[in-house]
């Protein structure tokens, strides 16, 4: 029997957090360095055309300090975009927040690069003489609002691509069995004013989803609810960890747990829940928290606030 083929990088990429982090850092580093180099050349040409004499190193320092501050602001933009996600259903509510955020972005960008330029000039024995704050802020905002919009657009596009590579899950609605025609005709209409009959049989419990449909690129397949080892809240999605793969489901962790069997799935952290049957080892930590080692080799943090959910009676 031949060994299974090793997964390609495009198969590993959505599930390998370390690989994704390296790729994302390299992407932004390349973009900012190329932008700084291009802007340096353009600035030198514009200054020469205007007849302004500046040292050769000054445009380079201006652009590098700008790029460094933008690099420091990107994690904040990522976190903000995850909180105020832009899509058709949320555009009307969240777009004004992003307009406000672009003004804050410009203010922090301008203040940060001025501070770095003052330090850079001082290190070279020179003095930095910036223009007035408000005149410079208005000039920078015209550029920064475009930079902010392009950054958010890149994040939205990247999330869309990652979702297609990673696979998006949705609950399969269990079809309700149709009532026989004779019973439908004979069944009396419910009386809203009649008191509850204590002898009436209790209503059946709500059905819990047993399978989920996953769409990945152009393929579709099913996963069983019992195969989910653990879950993680990821912005407006829940990551389902199944057999070493992560699939995203559009929901909050709190709402999704109400659809799962509470005797099997318990919350162990503000952002994590686990399948009790998938836990291999519980490792207590000095802080009172714990680390859960799952049977597939992955680990999940468990805060002491949720340790009671791992009582032996729950795991029998």
How many H/I helical runs? 8
Largest β-sheet summary: 8 strands, mixed
Radius of gyration: 28 Å
Helical fraction: 40-55%
Distance between the termini: 38 Å
Number of strands: 11
Sequence of secondary-structure elements: HHHHHEHEEEEEHEEEEEH
Mean pLDDT: 82
What overall geometry do the principal axes of the alpha carbons give? elongated
The total tally of domains equals: 2
What structural class is derived from the secondary structure elements? Answer: alpha+beta
Commentary on this structure:
The strands form 2 sheets. An 8-stranded mixed sheet has the order 3-2-1-6-5-4-8-7. The protein is elongated and about 75 Å long. Helix 2 (17-49) crosses helix 3, helix 3 (57-83) packs across helix 5 and helix 4 (91-123) crosses helix 5 (133-166). A hairpin with a 2-residue loop joins strand 4 (228-234) and strand 5 (237-242). It is 46% helix and 19% strand. The model is unreliable at 1-5 and 174-178 (pLDDT under 50). By secondary structure, the chain is α+β, with helices and mostly antiparallel strands. It has 2 domains: 12-166, no CATH class; 207-315, OB fold (Dihydrolipoamide Acetyltransferase, E2P) (Beta Barrel), CATH 2.40.50.1020.
Brief sketch in words of this structure:
This protein has helices at 9-12, 17-49, 57-83, 91-123, 133-166, 181-186, 253-257, 312-315; strands at 168-171, 211-216, 219-224, 228-234, 237-242, 245-250, 265-269, 272-275, 279-284, 290-294, 299-302. With 316 residues, the protein is an alpha+beta fold.
